[in-house]
Description:
Layout: H1 3-20, E1 23-24, H2 25-32, H3 36-48, E2 52-57, E3 60-65
Antiparallel strand pairs: 1-3, 2-3
Helix pairs in contact: 1-3
Amino acid sequence: xxxxxxxxxxxxxxxxxxxxxxxxxxxxxxxxxxxxxxxxxxxxxxxxxxxxxxxxxxxxxxxxxx
Length: 66
């Protein structure tokens, strides 16, 4: 079952954002050691829970906690 793993990885992403503030997608992927699939599943989970904000400046997308 994937759902428990998504929640676990989403917690890791949340911790990274809490410690580092706004982070670009590539940096977040590298720090969390997740592939694209898992990173986007985690971001979807956190977005659905209204925990993150997404911003884009030119070509850089950053993620931060609300």
